[in-house]
Write a structure and sequence with these properties.
39 helices; 6 strands; 810 residues; Delta-Endotoxin, domain 1; mainly alpha; Maestro-like_HEAT
Length: 810
């Protein structure tokens, strides 16, 4: 019906022109055409101009009331329509028969009584895409208003007005009447709809709605605003064309090879950069590209937007919204993250670029925020965790100027922490939260692990803590992770060695050493010789874990020379691990053959360790000494007799140690030594718990060793333990008694006693004063028999059976 009315309007206009213009030819044609519409031409009001004017006024008022009722809204166009091309002529019947459902704007073709209009409605004036496109013209305030009032019924100026009065001319709109020949900026357009989309009174008011991809802005336009003056078309270009192709064109573009990836990714990023709307539709084409060419897409994005601007952030999140695509992209990001500070790569188009490792971390941080990538993150979680921990360490210790400059730009754009190590820690926390590992997250926080990660002195401790806390959720992945860490540590040059080594130590017990026996020993041996005490400690911990495996014993024995050097280290923890490592290897007799060349040196190196300040080190060294001597005794007693004799005095003083476990271990070692030396007298005195009779017998029989025994006993006069100082003073008395024949031998004793500071223990002070007086007189007078010193008597608090039973040996 609307199409017929529209054609009728055109016919009536042509008739008026025929009446006014010269010549009867056109008028005659009009009369012939109008004969088909005789009922409408018999309007009695045609020859009454005054009634016609009143009818036009009533029509205008009726239209205004109708507009007020339906509430016309102004709309703001987000994009300008692309340039349209003319289409072949199409009849009105064809346009009515073929309903166009496409969303792309098009030109309407000339047909019959219809003049060509830019995107005007055809047939029944139903817009092909359900949106009002040709009716948008910019207003003075920069917005676009609809010149076509949306109504439910078609209203035409040449149709009968709502009150039943017919009019043959167009009604003026807002005081501006549109004549039969519209004058647009000096250009005469006869009966043609304006090309800029402005509707004349011949335009049917149709029911329109906004497009689904355009966000309408309701500015509360009133009915009067719908009929305000039409904007001058000179202020608006005939066609608005953007420089960049539309998103549909970009997404339909096919990529046949990897070399074409940068040419496809960069335009998508540029298109997103030009979009100012916050609700821009994410380009799904990036997911298809990343699924097929993950490496090239990652490197292109990191190269063109390293700081992850708004457009790049949309792309990374779009990639993460697909689990399968994220699964392929994450390994590529890991490759960049593991190269600090720059990752050098050649793109598919031949460019050699350097990408910041932190840029990949920033991209990961954006991807973690998408819940769809949880499964992909779970698969790569172990490697991601290691890479992030290593980045924390490197960003704490090494921050090149170029990295600092890059990070300042990222910080300003995203509001990130000032220092990148804090951001990386936040990324680790976000990763654990996304994987729903809340228990581990809280446990590390409770133990202050996150704060420890940010300190260079405690970072390695925090890495080990995190690795231990992750055992519950990552145990199945620790085997492959250990092999991955070995690969990182095997590379040339420093590769985050301290954090990687700290994590490796915690997962070594999950490693199948049969497949990597040589590589793991080579890595640990290199760090065992490092000048860094933390690396030496971690290497020892790793060897200690491997020492329980019998297949590794022979390889560890090859490192015995380096291990012996560590026994002299002042770090008690380091010495403790070294002693434990030796004991683990020696427990199996088959594995001890590798130590045959160093056992004698080991026994010699163990004697000074008896006097270590750490009681646990003392205990381990005494027990290891006994085990080594048992091993040597199998080869014969004569080669090792001197080693055993030199251990008697240190073991004798440790028998008086305040730590009952150490005292018990020393007593057992002494008992074994006397049996080894076949000294039944000394063995009997030990069994009857007569320590100073044991000392007297030792000095009496070993005349050749008296000087050495005395030399070994002198340091115990300065021992921090009172029982050891008292035992040393008594030993001086016994030694002086047996060395009285040679006065020059008394000088070291007298000098050592004089050097002793005043002792808080009265018994020790009294014995020291008595011995000094006795030896001073002996030095001033000729040699004479000395009284047997009271120090030979049994002390009140001597080691006894009670103390021996209080601590059992292992």
């Amino acid at each position: 019906m609307a199409g017929g009315c529209f054609g009728l309007c055109r016919l009536l206009q042509r008739k008026r022109k025929n009446r006014r213009g010269p010549g009867a030819g056109p008028a005659q044609e009009v009369e012939e055409e109008v004969q088909h519409f005789q009922p409408l031409q018999q309007d009695p009001g045609r020859d009454r101009p005054e009634e016609q004017d009143r009818a036009r006024g009533r029509l205008r008022r009726a239209v205004q009331r109708l507009l007020k009722f339906v509430g016309v809204r102004r709309r703001t166009a987000t994009t300008a329509p692309p340039e349209l091309t003319a289409q072949p002529d199409t009849s009105a019947a064809e346009l009515e028969a073929e309903a166009d459902v496409s969303t792309a704007p098009r030109d309407c073709a000339d047909s019959g009584d219809m003049e060509p209009m830019d995107c005007a409605a055809s047939g029944d004036m139903a817009l092909t895409d359900g949106t009002a496109t040709s009716d948008m013209a910019p207003t003075d305030d920069g917005t676009e208003t609809t010149d076509m009032a949306a109504t439910n019924c078609a209203a035409n100026c040449d149709m009968a007005p709502l009150d039943g009065t017919d009019t043959s001319e167009t009604a003026p709109v807002n005081g501006r009447a549109t004549s039969d020949t519209a004058q647009i900026e000096g250009t005469e357009t006869s009966d043609m709809a304006p090309m800029d989309g402005t509707a004349t009174c011949d335009t049917v008011l149709a029911d329109t709605e906004t497009s689904s991809d355009r966000a309408p802005t309701d500015v509360g336009a009133k009915a009067d605003a719908a009929t305000e003056g039409i904007t001058n078309t000179d202020c608006m270009p005939m066609h608005s064309v953007t420089d960049a192709p539309s998103l549909d064109v970009l997404e339909q573009k096919t990529v046949s090879s990897a070399n074409e990836v940068p040419a496809s990714v960069s335009p998508i990023h540029q298109w997103l950069t030009c979009q100012e709307s916050a609700e821009v539709r994410p380009p799904v084409a990036i997911r298809r590209l990343a699924h097929v060419h993950p490496g090239h897409v990652v490197m292109t994005l990191l190269h063109c937007a390293p700081a992850c601007d708004r457009a790049a952030a949309i792309l990374w999140r779009t990639i993460a919204s697909s689990a399968t695509t994220a699964y392929k992209v994450l390994p590529m990001l890991l490759g960049v993250m593991e190269d600090w500070p720059l990752h050098s790569v050649s793109t598919s188009d031949g460019d050699h670029v350097d990408v910041f490792a932190l840029a990949a971390t920033l991209a990961l941080w954006l991807m973690v925020q998408e819940p769809q990538c949880q499964d992909a993150l779970l698969v790569h979680a172990p490697r991601l965790l290691v890479a992030l921990l290593c980045q924390v360490s490197m960003s704490t210790e090494q921050m090149p100027e170029e990295v600092s400059t890059f990070w300042r730009g990222c910080q300003e754009q995203h509001g990130l922490p000032t220092h990148p190590n804090s951001f990386v820690v936040q990324t680790i926390q976000a990763l654990l939260w996304r994987l729903q590992w809340d228990q581990e997250l809280v446990s590390v926080e409770r133990k202050r692990g996150w704060d420890a990660l940010l300190s260079a002195d405690t970072h390695h401790y925090a890495v080990g803590l995190l690795a231990r806390e992750m055992r519950r959720v990552l145990v199945p992945s620790y085997g492959p992770l250990a092999r991955h860490l070995l690969g990182l540590l095997s590379r040339e040059g420093p590769r985050w060695e301290l954090p990687a080594l700290a994590f490796l130590v915690e997962v070594l017990d999950y490693l199948d050493v049969s497949t990597c026996h040589d590589s793991v020993l080579q890595i640990l041996a290199r760090h065992l010789q490092s000048q860094c005490p933390e690396r030496r400690r971690l290497a020892l911990r790793g060897l200690l874990v491997l020492s329980v495996d019998p297949s590794m014993a022979k390889g560890i024995c090859s490192l015995s020379e380096h291990l012996l050097e560590l026994l002299c280290d002042g770090d008690g923890e380091l010495v403790t691990m070294t002693l434990s490592l030796f004991r683990n290897v020696l427990q199996d007799g088959e594995n001890s053959d590798g130590f045959s060349s160093t056992t004698s040196r080991l026994a010699e190196a163990l004697r000074p360790v008896f006097d270590n300040d750490n009681s646990h080190v003392q205990l381990l060294s005494i027990r290891l000494f006994r085990e080594v001597m048992d091993l040597l005794a199998e080869e014969g007693t004569e080669p090792w007799e001197m080693q055993v004799r030199q251990s008697l005095v240190p073991l004798f003083f440790r028998w008086h140690d305040e730590n009952q476990c150490v005292a018990q271990a020393a007593w057992e070692a002494l008992l074994w030594a006397t049996s080894f030396l076949q000294r039944k007298d000394l063995e009997q005195l030990l069994k009857t718990e007569q320590p100073f009779r044991f000392c007297d017998c030792l000095m009496e029989k070993d005349m050749s060793q008296r000087g050495e025994h005395l030399h070994q006993a002198l340091p115990y006069l300065q021992s921090p333990q009172e029982p050891l100082r008292e035992a040393a003073v008594r030993f001086m008395g016994v030694a002086g008694w047996h060395m009285r024949e040679q006065q020059q031998d008394l000088w070291p004793i007298l000098k050592a006693l004089t050097a002793m500071s005043d002792d808080d223990c009265p018994s020790v002070s009294n014995m020291r004063a008595a011995l000094m007086a006795t030896y001073s007189r002996a030095m001033r007078t000729p040699p004479a028999p000395l009284r047997r010193p009271m120090s030979l008597q049994q002390p009140r608090n001597s080691p006894g059976t009670t103390s021996q039973r209080s601590c059992s040996s292992s």
